[in-house]
Specification:
- Residues 31-50 bind DNA.
- It comes from Streptomyces griseocarneus.
- Residues 8-68 form the HTH tetR-type domain.
- Keywords: DNA-binding.
- By secondary structure, this protein is mainly alpha-helical.
- It has ten helices and no strands.
- The longest helix has 23 residues, at 7-29.
- It is globular, with a radius of gyration of 19 Å.
């Protein structure tokens, strides 16, 4: 009896294998044959589903960003909590930030696939900060988009640079807890929630 095909299960396996492959090797270094082998899928099927390697990368990254947004939506009215949740997410899912960095290396300042959708994605996040600024919850000195950009960098950098974290901060649980507290303090100051003592 022939095996029953399950296209959704196959696509899910492809996405998982592609996430690992792209996170490790970037777009240029990734190999569709390795993704096919890890996903137990036909190489031609990957091309049929996704078109090409760049499109597969784009869809993998977009799905991961949507998963993060759904799991931990921006909460500009609770900067401490949001920073904690984002730091925890990146620590548990380092492949997402690696995918973002590979995308930056590949496309630089030029356009990238599905850029309009990404702009909409982040416009919604920036709008949450703009709304908190309008309500007077956070300071409006820094434009909302700039603020989101800086806070995201603060929260994700330990995952991007674990070796520098080890050198500069330390590698014990106490060191990591201290860094997290420092990131929260910096985020609150950037957002105008805390003012340093005069």
């Amino acid at each position: 009896m022939a095996a029953v095909r399950d296209p959704e299960a196959t696509k899910a396996r492809i996405f998982e294998a592609a996430t690992a492959e792209f996170a490790a090797y970037g777009i240029a270094g990734a190999r569709i044959d390795r993704i096919a082998r890890e996903a137990c899928a036909n190489k031609q099927l990957i091309y049929a589903y996704f078109g090409n390697k760049a499109e597969l990368f784009s869809q993998v990254l977009e799905r991961r960003l949507v998963e993060l947004a759904a799991a931990h939506p921006v909460d500009a009215e609770d900067v401490d909590g949001w920073i904690d949740r984002i730091m925890d997410y990146h620590a548990a899912n380092p492949e997402l930030i690696r995918l973002v960095f590979w995308e930056g290396l590949e496309y630089g300042t030029g356009g990238f696939p599905h850029e309009a959708e990404r702009r909409r994605h982040y416009a919604g996040k920036a709008a949450a900060f703009a709304e908190a600024q309008e309500k007077g919850i956070i300071d409006s000195t820094i434009p909302a988009g700039d603020l989101l950009f800086m806070l995201t960098a603060l929260a994700s950098w330990p995952t991007v640079q674990p070796h520098m974290q080890r050198i500069l901060v330390g590698e014990t649980d106490e060191d990591r807890a201290r860094l997290r507290a420092s990131v929260r303090t910096a985020a609150r100051r950037i957002a105008g929630l805390d003012r340093p003592e005069a």
